[in-house]
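hey
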């Protein structure tokens, strides 16, 4: 495992800070099974605005569980 790698936990794309991406060549993104796909995609889209343009989805276990979007996030 790498040491000294920056990590941040955010609830939505608006919480991403541009300075986190300065000088970065690669960014990793993980999300729990209950994270709505629309929010994950919003984070990916915002990361792209900071100059991280290529997105690759790595192989893993395909999750088929679907969670309803909480009412507070439906707006």
């Amino acid at each position: 495992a790498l040491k000294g790698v920056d990590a941040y936990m955010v609830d939505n794309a608006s919480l991403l800070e541009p300075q986190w991406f300065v000088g970065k060549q690669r960014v990793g993104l993980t999300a729990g099974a209950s994270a709505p796909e629309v929010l994950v995609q919003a984070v990916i889209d915002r990361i792209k605005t900071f100059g991280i343009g290529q997105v690759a989805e790595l192989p893993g276990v395909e999750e088929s569980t679907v969670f309803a979007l909480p009412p507070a996030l439906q707006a």
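Residues 39 and 73 are 9 Å apart (CA to CA). The chain has one helix and no strands.
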